[in-house]
Design goal:
With 355 residues, the protein is an alpha+beta fold. The chain has eight helices and 17 strands. The relative contact order is 0.12. It binds 2,5-anhydro-1,6-di-O-phosphono-D-mannitol and magnesium ion.
């Protein structure tokens, strides 16, 4: 009951809204709550996250019709800057992020796996003070067999004028990220994000068209049973990673899980603990994953959840890239499991130095 101005009591209409309040914390509202502010910077970050959510909804909608409408499955016939064949959904997803942020007035520059150079939105510069780094559709080899895929994103402050388009200000360590996260297109669509105040997940309610808070302050267990790695590359790894693989094969309590799509594999580790690895190989000494829009955003999340991310010898968030599309080895997950992998690398180094 509430008191009216005339002193009479009447039922509180918000009482019945209790369920709404409990069940419907939306993404933009959550960001503002996390920042404990309605100031301009908080409004910016909230609006940015809302736009990322919109891009996720558009991609999820198209994925749900894969195979039913033109342009959802198969290759375009082009090869991207990474030398990889481009899928129709890669292009669509890349374009969705650009068009979503074109109208945002916030982002001056977008850098993605699918574009050799960053894409500028001159009308947002200098008003737009942010850069969005993203992998629009990670794991797209899973698409044609109807398995999970994801989008990965990071937001950084735009530093410098960057007039020549070289984006040199992006070549800085991952601790410069203001926000990072991913969208997992699985049985349901999940958005997981951090703005440096813990890791939080949201589930897309298609009937509302909103991402609704699912779990706040996710923490990764200190140790988990899962190791997630493409063991088909075993023969191409450095001996230290082979030592680690032999160790988990010979000890009870480990189980392998690998879907071929980073977002789903890391989401499993985030929820249940364990370790995901993509080491360097003989053919690709730096591994496959790109630092700025794959490894660094995931590392930001994992550290926020109490886990770790390493190249094997250095924290991912301390790595300073030399180029936009730089690759890096990745060992990420529970603290104890990352440390175990690192211990095999240190052991090998020590043995090699002892001759
Ligand atoms: P992509 O960005 O071109 O999709 O490549 C990244 C993907 C990751 O999602 C996944 O972990 C890895 O490539 C799988 O690679 P591989 O098939 O070599 O195991
Ligand atoms: Mg990728």
């Amino acid at each position: 009951m509430v008191q009216t101005q005339t002193g009479r009591s009447q039922p509180d209409p918000l009482d019945r809204g209790y369920y709404l309040d409990r069940d419907c914390t939306t993404l933009s509202r959550h960001v503002l709550q996390q920042l404990k502010s309605f100031g301009p910077d908080a409004q910016d970050i909230s609006a940015l996250m809302n736009r990322i959510g919109l891009a996720g909804k558009l991609i999820a909608r198209r994925l749900s019709r894969a195979g039913l409408v033109e342009g959802t499955l198969g290759f375009t016939g082009d090869v991207n800057v990474q030398g990889e064949e481009v899928k129709q959904m890669d292009l669509y997803s890349n374009a969705v992020f650009i068009s979503t942020f074109k109208q945002s007035g916030l982002v001056c520059r977008l850098a993605s796996e699918e574009m050799e150079k960053p894409y500028y939105i001159p009308e947002n510069c200098p008003i737009g003070r942010y850069t969005l780094l993203y992998d629009p559709l990670d794991g797209s080899s899973n698409l044609d067999v109807n398995l999970n895929v994801g989008s990965i994103f990071a937001i950084r402050q735009q530093e410098g004028d960057d007039e020549d388009g070289a984006a040199l200000d992006l070549l800085q360590h991952g601790r410069k990220q203001l926000a990072a996260g991913y969208i997992l297109y699985g049985p349901s669509t999940l958005l997981v994000y951090s703005i440096g105040t813990g890791v939080h997940s949201f589930t897309l309610d298609p009937s509302l068209g909103e991402f609704i808070l699912a779990q706040e302050n996710i923490t990764v267990p200190e140790h988990g049973p899962v190791y997630s790695v493409n063991e088909g590359n075993f023969w191409q790894w450095d001996e230290s990673f082979r030592d680690y693989a032999r160790y988990v094969h010979r000890h009870e309590g480990y189980t392998a899980r690998y879907s071929g799509a980073l977002v789903g594999d890391i989401h499993r580790i985030l929820c249940q603990g364990g370790v995901f690895l993509y080491p360097g190989t003989a053919k690709k000494p730096e591994g496959k994953l790109r630092l700025l829009y794959e490894s660094a955003p995931m590392a930001f999340l994992m550290e926020q959840a109490g886990g770790r991310a390493s190249t094997g010898t250095q924290d991912i968030l301390d790595v300073i890239p030399e180029k936009l599309h730089q690759r890096t080895p990745l060992v990420i997950g529970s603290k104890e499991d990352v440390a175990l992998v690192e211990s095999f690398i240190q052991d090998r180094k020590r043995r090699d130095s002892e001759g």
